[in-house]
Amino acid sequence: MSPASGQHLGTPPAVSTTAAAAPGHPGAASYLAIADTGNRRLDTDFDHLTGRDSGNLSAARADLRDAAATERQFDRSLLTIAFPPATEAVARTLFAVNQSRAALATAASSSTNLRQLHQYEDRLSAANRPVEQAVTTLRSQLGLPPPDTS
């Protein structure tokens, strides 16, 4: 799962979840449902973080805390989906890298000033790459199109 586009504070590209699940790919529809829900929330968090809340430490911290909570909720839901064995392995990888990214967002949300918060940007951006790779692989195994990168 990836939040909205924009590179401030490491926000990865949006993932299109509007494609219909391919027939015969167990778990595709369930995956799309949780990804769509999570992405809408992450879009809001990161739009606020890079927009109206960019100069407001308290609001930016709240955006990051909500993004981390959203990632963790997605991960818990992801683990409840029955995938074929090979896809299950990718889902567990996605879980692990998402948890790592959520932990980093939580750490950034503990910043005591905006300068300190902005020092997390490169690490948050780097944390997106393994998430994007796992999402792309998972979607491919489910017969779904690759995520949008716009």
Structural notes for this entry:
The chain is mainly α and 150 residues long. α3 (85-108) runs antiparallel to α5. It has helices spanning 28-50, 57-78, 85-108, 114-118, 121-141. The chain has one domain (8-141).
Tally of discrete structural domains: 1
Provide the low-confidence segments as ranges.
1-23
Percentage beta strand: under 5%
> Using only CA atoms, what is the Rg?
15 Å
Inertia-based shape: elongated
Structural class given helices, strands, pairing? mainly alpha
> What's the rounded overall pLDDT mean?
83
DSSP helix fraction: 55-70%
Order of helices and strands: HHHHH
Instruction: Please summarize the sheet with the most strands.
Output: none
Task: Give the helix tally.
Answer: 5
Number of strands: 0
Q: End-to-end span in angstroms? A: 14 Å
